[in-house]
Design a protein that fits this description.
196 residues, alpha+beta, Alpha-Beta Plaits, 2 domains, 5-stranded antiparallel beta sheet, two-stranded antiparallel ribbon, 7 strands, 38% helix, elongated
């Protein structure tokens, strides 16, 4: 009896002009290690449509900060005060001693209009919440934050600022390498065309 073997795509680490490593399926590169024109076109299109934050340098660490990521589907504008009140309510609910002054645990709240900065309605806006300690941040991040506004319950995802910014920075670096790859590929194609 012959067993049916499913076709799987094998990814290889290929090295292209411009010093860029790019994961592509094996069948999309030729025997010289060059990507097929269709792969190049897909990469260029994906890069042009991708929304990536710009960084002039590696983001500074904020070990006590978290990101409050607002849900895309929410039609309610959440204010600094509403978010602050919800965070304080959460801290009060988990405080276990009388000396725990919760009002001092939140140092600052800064709104970041990410959808505007990246010119996309598919990107959620967020707040940077600076806490007094890493422990306060960790306690708040244990579960999503429930905020009630205009008789609607909104769930806000709380994430580590440093971890989120590091992921965004890595996406930016990768994106810049891809841009360099496309730029070098375009220059090489022009040189090849001009020699004909």
């Amino acid at each position: 009896m012959i067993s049916k073997i499913e076709k799987t795509t094998v990814f290889v680490r290929s090295y292209f002009p411009g010093g860029v490593n790019y994961d592509v399926p094996r069948e999309e590169i030729d025997e010289n290690g060059q990507m097929q024109i269709e792969t190049y076109q897909k990469l260029k299109k994906r890069l042009n449509n991708r929304k990536v934050r710009y960084f002039s340098e590696q983001p500074a660490k904020k070990p006590n900060a978290l990101l409050a990521i607002l849900p895309l589907e929410s039609s309610i504008n959440i204010t600094h005060q509403q978010l602050y009140d919800s965070l304080i309510d959460r801290l009060k609910s988990i405080a276990n001693d009388d000396d725990y002054n919760v009002e001092e645990r939140i140092i600052s709240i800064e709104f970041v209009p990410t959808s505007c900065l990246l010119n996309s309605s598919d990107i959620p806006n967020e707040f940077i919440v600076d806490c007094d300690t890493n422990n306060t941040k960790r306690l708040l991040m244990e579960q999503p934050l429930k905020l009630v506004a205009n008789k609607q319950t909104i769930h806000i995802d709380l994430q580590s600022y440093d971890e989120n910014m590091q992921r965004e920075y890595e996406k930016f670096i990768k994106s810049e390498k891809y841009r360099e790859l496309i730029k070098n590929h375009d220059a090489a194609m022009k040189r090849t065309t001009s020699k004909k």
